[in-house]
Amino acid sequence: MTVSAAQQEQIDLAIAHLRAGGLVGLPTETVYGLAADADNPEAVRSIFALKGRPADHPVIVHIAGVAQLADWAQNIPDAAFKLAGAFWPGPLTLILQRQPHVPDAVTGGQDTVGIRAPSHPLAHALLKQFGGGIAAPSANRFGHVSPTTAQHVRDEFGDDLSLVLEGGPCDIGVESTIVGLTGEQPTLLRPGGVPREAIEALLGMPLIHHQKSDTAKVRVSGLLDSHYSPRTPLVTGAAKVVDDQAYLAFERGQRVVLVTCGGRDIPICGIDVLNLPADPQTYAQQIYDTLRQLDRKSYHTIFLELPPHTAPWLAVQDRLHRAAHTRLG
Ligand code: TXA
Ligand code: MG
């Protein structure tokens, strides 16, 4: 994987910044991250301060590849090597037992650590040259929509973040799949870029569903019920239901927009309509950008038709569920 001279300049700048304890907006194939040197607790704490995120929420450590896995985790089960071999670099995060040196600021004081090797060429090259681990949550204020372009990150933090690497729009557009490997059986903690079925096929067993009652224990902030939200009220539901509600709101004189999946005939004239693609991958690439764009248009409400409740849509369904202020079933 080669990087251009201009990209190498960006990487040099980012590495100098990280070594000095600074934060960097980092493109990955899923979403942009807010990166700090994972070995520097003070730098990691400044991520939380900038995001406005509770300090006991753990952040993922990004590494160049499986060769660095044992630097951060111990008692690594075979399943981890299997999954890393198949899906790294890529959108898969593994939760493993941490090495004792991993700062509490990274793990939220837990005895586990989340690790992933991103495939974005810029992130991958940076990680290889940096050598250490990079702690990075998504580069958005706590609870807000994740960023999928460098401009989103600049919109989010403005002058509070001096360096954002330009890596183009994210290929995947939703966060990594998180698999917990510290229990008796592998657990799906967050659906994401790697399909659940691909993981189950590789391991030859089903993943346990994350139970909501476990949330307090594992403190996965992506599992909070309100997350990934636009500022404009977002109402989700089946096509007929959101059509009806959008119409009622429109009749009351509100400025509303109806977001459909795949496009269809809208029986309401005069209402703003935006069509998202019926393909789950393309939909995932566009959804966060769409929510951010609609947020700038000062609508009273965004009405969104949910995509099908089928396996390929699992990650998108999960994010829409958490982003919604009102769910109409
Ligand atoms: O695709 C991604 O995963 C992106 C890019 C930047 O890599 N990162 C991301 O980070 O989504 P964040 O912090 O927004 O979400 C990571 C999730 C959080 O919900 C966090 O609580 C969970 O991973 N997590 C991290 N370490 C954990 C651990 N040791 N145990 C349980 N959950 C953990
Ligand atoms: Mg996040």
Automatic annotation (TrEMBL):
Looking at the keywords, is Hydrolase present?
Answer: no
The entry marks the following residues as binding L-threonine, namely T30, H62, R116, A136, S176
InterPro entries in the record: DHBP_synth_RibB-like_a/b_dom, Sua5-like_dom, Sua5/YwlC_C, Sua5_C, T(6)A37_SUA5, TC-AMP_synthase_SUA5
Q: Which residues form the YrdC-like domain?
A: 8-194
Q: Which reaction does it catalyse?
A: L-threonine + hydrogencarbonate + ATP = L-threonylcarbamoyladenylate + diphosphate + H2O
Positions with a binding annotation for ATP:
R53, T112, S138, S146, R190, Y228
Task: List, in alphabetical order, the GO biological process terms annotated in this UniProt record.
Answer: regulation of translational fidelity; tRNA processing
Which PROSITE patterns does this one have?
A: YRDC (PS51163)
| Cellular component, GO annotation | cytoplasm
**From the Swiss-Prot or TrEMBL record, what is one GO molecular function term?**
tRNA binding
EC numbers for this chain: 2.7.7.87
Compartments, as annotated in UniProt: Cytoplasm
Q: Does the keyword Transmembrane apply?
A: no
Tell me the keywords, alphabetical order.
ATP-binding, Cytoplasm, Nucleotide-binding, Nucleotidyltransferase, Transferase, tRNA processing
Domain of life of the source:
Bacteria
Job of this protein: Required for the formation of a threonylcarbamoyl group on adenosine at position 37 (t(6)A37) in tRNAs that read codons beginning with adenine.
Its family remark reads:
Belongs to the SUA5 family.
What is this protein called in UniProt? Answer: Threonylcarbamoyl-AMP synthase
Origin organism is Silvimonas terrae
